[in-house]
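Annotated sample (chain length 382).
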Amino acid sequence: MHVRTFRTNSDWLGIVSVPKAIQRLIKESVLESDGYAAVKSIEETADELGIPVSDIIKLDQNENPYGTTLRVFDTLATYDHLHQYPDATHRVARERISEYAGVPADRIMIGNGSDEIIDMLFMLTIEPGDEVIVPMPTFGVYAARPPLYGGVVKVVERKPNFDLDVDAILNAVTDRTKLIFLAHPNNPTGNLVSTAQLVRILRTGALVVVDEAYYEFSDNTLLPMLGEWENMVILRTFSKWAGLAGLRVGYGIFPEKLGQQIWKVKPPFNVSVAGLKSIEAVLDDIEYLRETVSRIRVERGRLYRSLRKLNFLDPYPSHGNYILCRVTRGDAHDVYGRLRKQGILVRSYRDPWLRDFIRISVGTPEDTTTLLRALRAMVEEV
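Output written by the structure step:
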């Protein structure tokens, strides 16, 4: 079993010197944390490369390359109540999500992306010294945020094929364990959590957070389990499939009793009217977005088959809108850098589990063609 207490990687943001007069004002957990570092903005990258933003092929953040429905733009252009606060209860948007997800509206909480729901869960559950179990590698926010609330992160390594090591997770559970995070499918590895695995983990009694950010690309959900267990939460988002990453709207689906408590920690006006109205617009034109999801899934298959033919990449099958590749010849950061110089952005990593990998988001067919042309040109160079 491989379990360790988590400390963020200082390579992410770098160590920042803080004057002693300021240090005493800041929580020790914040001073010791390096935080979660997202990739650079497309504008900053374009400036660094000296090329127009329009020439960038952005395959590093798992976004929908087709964007969102035009109904979002029409809705926001005609909405004339921006001087008024949004509905603090998100009533209409929750009712629309209820119809879409097939769960009662009173089980739904909307946040500024599912990231905010994750923070709400920490506010709801974590006392200093409580533990959060995170199977790594996975989405870095799960491990980066708990220390800010006094939580202790226990990392459990996944198996070599990135499947969950359920025995190791169970052995890591103590009477201080409050939360266990499971991404379904997992980002960046693309694999799913089985029902049998989930049941074993739920039996620990810890709150199991199942992040289904990429549900629409996998068409596989563990939501039915929510009716049987009181210690489970489902997270979803409109950032990926619905093309609303820039508007930051996600939601959580809660069991009844826990759902009643989460409202106590929600900021009163946490989601803007733009975000709430965009949810309505998206769900008014869901067939268009389902078509873009279908196109991405088809392109995912083409990309995976093409990557397998390259003699220096080993792609992993994925249920998300991305493909993780082990760089089997040469250096992963060198491959990342060569692509970046050509304006092709993929994701690279510095953590111990993924330093030999790159993750490629599924783009348009034209994006795939350009990417493959660049990778094929490297075959003799790496």
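Annotation: The first strand starts at residue 3 and ends at 5.
Annotation: The mean pLDDT is 92.
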